[in-house]
Amino acid sequence: MAIDSPALNTRRAAPRDWIPRWSSTAALRAVRATLVVPVLFAVSITVIGDLQVATFAAFGGFATLVMASFGGDRRDKLRAHFGLAVTGSVLLVIGTAASASLLLAAVVTLVVTFLVLFGGVVGPNAAAGGVAALLAYVLPAASPGTMSMVPARLGGWWLASVVGTAAVLLLSPRSPATALRDAASRAAGALADHLDAALRGGTGVDAAHEAAVEAKHHLIDEFTATPYRPTGLAAEDQALDTLVGLLEWCASVIADTTSEYPDLSGAPEVERELLVETSAGLREVSRLMAGRPGSFDAGELDRRIQASVERLRTLGSGTPGYVDAVHLSFHARTGAFAVREAVTEARAAVPGGRRSRLPGGLSMATLARVASPHTSLRSVWFVNSLRGAVALTAAVVVAGASGVEHGFWVVLGTLSVLRGNAAATGSTALRALIGTALGVVAGAVLLLVIGTSAPALWIALPIAVLVAGYAPGALPFTAGQAAFTVTVSVLFNLLAPAGWQIGVVRIEDVAIGCAVCLVVGALFWPRGARAVVADDLADAFRAGGAYLSAAANWALGLRHDQPSPAAATAAGARLDDALRGFLSEQGTKHVPKPDLWRLVMGTVRARLTAHSLAGLPNPHVEPDPFRRLLGDQAGQLAAWYDHLASRLDRTDHGDVPMLAPPVFPDLLRQPGASVRDLACALWVHEHIKHISARLAELVEPAGVVAAQRHRPWWR
């Protein structure tokens, strides 16, 4: 059976990054920057009359309005911008103090850069503000200055922060989290329509199925559209994050149910009532995510589940149709359990219900718990943060040791071209140099035409800012670099007229920064996120298989200590981050996305199946042969997942073929199973049968990923 993956058929194709495209978000960003940056610069120069204030107001404006892109409602954005202003102020002071000594600057840059970049694990707004906060540090750290300049520099930074934040609050597009809630509402409603169509029977089931698949694809697209999760640490954000996974699981369960039972109009009444109540639960999720009040009675769903259980208890294993009754009941109750969990998470995800409450409170213990799964070389956050820290430190050292006149541009050149792998970094470095050169040419032509006349430069400044503000994500990277170079040329000629020569200096400095970044990228992480994706896939399969085996033994009564989902959950989170990093890397993807998504969904299926089993009651009965056979089957599944993981990790197994997935007999159809045995174990049996049917589709994609991770990085 083919997997219903969000990438196989209708996943959006990413636009080529060299083709300009219209973006309303980029347009609003450009308008904000155009309205704020030139005005702040003019006020700082003509009214305040301080070059430090003007410099930090201009670059602070770019940091606040162009580099940082925060999500959430206005309160969330206000909180995020205030955090950026405070963090930037602290880093500005540290950077100014560290600039007094090259050795001190190198040590401090290594620590500060790692902490700022790694802090992105806290949530999307922390990640979105990382580069902007680093700008507040590298500008003073790589520029000559004394502590006496700190007040003026802070004045310019806070001027930009206050005015820029006001502009963001007034001119803001819809946030990714809002779009994600809309997509979740649409997906839940489409799943309810799909289930209702099957309950009615007739010809509308296929159309409802297609609509549900399309809505689920849209939900996954929204969830994976950014290089980091669009949800943070707040309890409502964590609930929304969990809800997306549960809706995926609901979609899979309902699709499997309707593929086997396309017409449920003739199903037993007790199962029909359970499915009707399940559909009502999905509509409750849809209402809550759309911001409408809910009215669903979860207790009624529980009563329908119990009624389904009682019906099976009245049937004997010799009753005609008993096996089919067990199978339909499994599908109905699995969907009901998934929807019940989804309703719980949807209620917790309602905005304002538990606003900005971190699980466990905002404390060092909470932050340590969130960061601890990522403190390894198998985490894309850790590796990216380490590589960025080493690259910026090397840039600071090279800038200081070489004695270049504008060391800040060396560091900024490194920061602007740092990408996920050496090949992507090299490509971006080349485009950065080309863009800078084009910007120099454009700036030189502009300055030759208008000269260094202040009125003409003031007219050119907002035009240059407009293009530079629109460029990120909407124009080719080269065009963005060119526009930023023109903006800098105009700014510096307003500060101290020097003509077109300022652009030539910037080409030299950016070239040094690009070279530093390329060397560090080749030494530290030449393969980029594709190697980490393979490692994290292996971890997720191992942890998911172990969790599945433990949960099955728990539900069978073969163990009595509650299985912990911690390892499987942490591995899944690392895989999600690595996958986003891989998909956001520039350059050719040698691993087909359908293959990648099959493997990712395989890990999700193992983890959620285990979660479903772990939620069953733990029977305190003596082990019997039937349950021991099921326990052995669960152990074989875990062993096969471990074998699959061994093909994805760092060891190259060459042409050694993979083991075929285990094939289990249908124990319900075997002679000698008593009614008492089935009452204890039929749920575990159905879970194992359901997940075993999807194992074969993982073999070929695993081989593709394993082959690609062992290719030389330059190929």
From TrEMBL:
It comes from the Bacteria. Its main location: membrane. It is found in: Cell membrane. GO terms for cellular component: plasma membrane. The keyword Transmembrane applies. The keyword Transmembrane helix applies. It is a multi-pass membrane protein. The chain crosses the membrane at residues 30-48, 54-72, 84-117, 123-142, 154-172, 389-418, 430-450, 456-475, 482-504, 510-526. Residues 395-520 form the Integral membrane bound transporter domain. Pfam families: FUSC_2. Keywords: Cell membrane, Membrane, Transmembrane, Transmembrane helix. InterPro entries: Memb_transporter_dom. PANTHER family: MULTIDRUG RESISTANCE PROTEIN MDTO, P-HYDROXYBENZOIC ACID EFFLUX PUMP SUBUNIT-RELATED. Belongs to the YccS/YhfK family. This is Integral membrane bound transporter domain-containing protein. It comes from Amycolatopsis rifamycinica.
